Amino acid sequence: MKLIFLSLTILLSLFNVLPAQAQDYDSPKYLEGAVPVENGMVVFSETQRVEGKSRQQIYTALEAYTKSLLQSEVSGTQCRITELTPETGTIAASIEEELTFKSTAWVHDYARFFFQLVFEVKDGEYTATLRRIRYLYSKMDMTGVDNTMTAEDWITDKEAINRKGKLNKVGGRKFRYATINRKDAIFAGALKAVQTAQ
Questions:
Q1: Which of 24, 32, 34, 96 lies most in the core, judged by the most C-beta atoms within 10 Å?
Q2: pLDDT tens digit string along 162-186?
Q3: Rounded-to-integer distance, Cα 159 and Cα 77, Å
């Protein structure tokens, strides 16, 4: 009996039909206050102190990192550098990526994810900002209808959190979860690029 169960488990895992690992939608990381809004717009921002690094070292590392994002496996056709100004320490890019919600052998649920990434560099520190977020979701695609969805309409506390303080099961939950995770990955990648810069 154990052999049959083990064989069945292995077979099902090969075809990826076992339940996926549960996503922790109830983590405080995704709940109230996780999506900051400034002047009515969703804006993720963080400042990192990087001791012992000059403005030029930080700028060069972040420029290379930004260019690598434009050429990643998930980047789309609408990626471009919009500003490189060493004098002011500004790097800006408009980025299109594939934001995957679920991927199995039979399902690939994703949206096209558009955002602006800006780095403002000074000696020993930089500020990373991710803003102007919008999505194109194929499941919402209707002929003749603009299916562009803005972060302000989908992932803010007002839109994505219910009266019990939990993420809504419909609507922006998966968008909020995936956006926060992607933002964290981008910001962590930038910090690593700067810390390892020569």
A1: 34
A2: 888 888 877 688 999 999 999 999 9
A3: 29
